[in-house]
Each structure stands twice: as structure tokens, then as C-alpha cells.
Structure of tRNA-specific adenosine deaminase:
Amino acid sequence: MRAALDAAAAAAAAGEVPVGAVVIRDGAVIATAANAPRRLHDPTAHAEMLAIRAAAAMLGRERLEDCDLWVTLEPCAMCAGAIAHARIARLYYGAADSKGGAVEHGPRFFAQPTCHHRPEVFAGIGDREAGELLRDFFAARR
Amino acid sequence: MRAALDAAAAAAAAGEVPVGAVVIRDGAVIATAANAPRRLHDPTAHAEMLAIRAAAAMLGRERLEDCDLWVTLEPCAMCAGAIAHARIARLYYGAADSKGGAVEHGPRFFAQPTCHHRPEVFAGIGDREAGELLRDFFAARR
């Protein structure tokens, strides 16, 4: 989670909502990404999406069933859907997101009967630091 | 929808699940995409995602509030989330997807209180041809 938190801090420094994500395989980081929709002119460029896409490209396949995803914020519906499509084995996330989260809030995507793959989910890891990064970012913009 | 159906047929010919999508702005097609997760080694490479990303890149911004999306199949949770993030004005789709759809099935994403943007939705457009493409594709693989 340290690497994901560092990526989140880098996103904040670049003027993006501070969220970071890392894909781990066999105990090694194979992809790290920071949230970047503004910089990339890409509404889908959440940290999870970029990390999943980079890992899949690196491995040369569309499924990551032997990989885990660490992300500093509860994934939204788009990212939860991508995690299921990628067949991520374990999802570790930091701060809960009552507004846009889709794991323990809103659509609760992995609990839907139509969800075709559910990772193991571990929430609240590094949530204090992840939440502080977000609060500081939004406080500075007000 | 003709262009989206043609993109779906092209996906089938390339061995991908046949789904096609088009982004329209001011009455003109600005992006067309076919489903391509296998070819691109990218679990997020659904037709809607590729079309939205291409349109945003072309316009140089992360929001498509003046654009409509046409897609041959009911969007999944990932794509519905991306449509909301992109602020797509109107969503037109073909065949309903009782297994993976997230508009009228499963999470019914746009009806969730946490959904921050709801496009106008028009379903069932070209659904017969869209559904036939999918049925023929899966029948040929059995």
C-alpha cells in the first residue's frame, strides 16, 4: 500500500484527485498508477484502470487471475467492473468512498448476482493516510 | 446504430465478442470502436470504453457532455460507470444483456443514488440484429 499511497500523493501534486493503485504478482509490483483523467483527457483514467491495463499489457494477456490490486480508495462501479473483467484475485483498498464507491456503497457490485467474478476484498488498509490525502486535496481547492 | 452494428460485425470477424460503439457529436460520428480485449490484451477494452476514450482524446478533454453514445449491447457496470464519468448526454443501446448488463439488470447503475450523472437512456435500438450477431458468435464457438 506504500507504493499506492505514494502514487496518490503524486496525483495530488499534479492537480488530480489523489488516488493511487498497484498491481502485485508473485509478491512483486508489476504496475503502479496514479489517477490522471485530467492530464490524459480520459474520463476512464482512474488509478485502478491504468494499473490493470499496464499489468495486462506487460503480461500480454487480458486476465490477471494471479494478481492482486492495491488501491488507496474504494473502487467506483467502473473500476469494480474492470477488476471483475480482469479476474483480479484479491482487492485491498484504503479509504471507504460513500459518494462514489461501489464495493461497500451504492451498487455493491461484487454482491450482485450478475457479477461474474468476485475478488477477495480487504478494506481499510492505510485508510487514514489515504483519506487525509483526499481531504487535504479538496480542502485546498475550496 | 448502423456504424455500431458494423463495428460489432468486425469484432466477430476478429474473434472478439461482437459489440460495437459510436460517439456522436453535433450529428457527426467522432469515434467508432469494436470490442477488443483479446487483441489488445486489455480487460477494459470494451467497445464503449474505446469509443469514449477516443472521443475524449480527440476533443482534448475528459468530459463529453455534448456527446451521445450508441452501442449494440446494454453496457456493463464498468462501461456504465465510464459513461457517467464522461457525462455522456444520451445513451442508445441495442440488445439487453441479462447476464452482464448494468442499466436495466444487476446493479442498475444509473438508478443508484450514488450515481453522479445519468444520461437519457434509449434501449432496444437495432436489438434484433445486435442480438443475432451475439447469438451467431457464441453458437459458432460451441
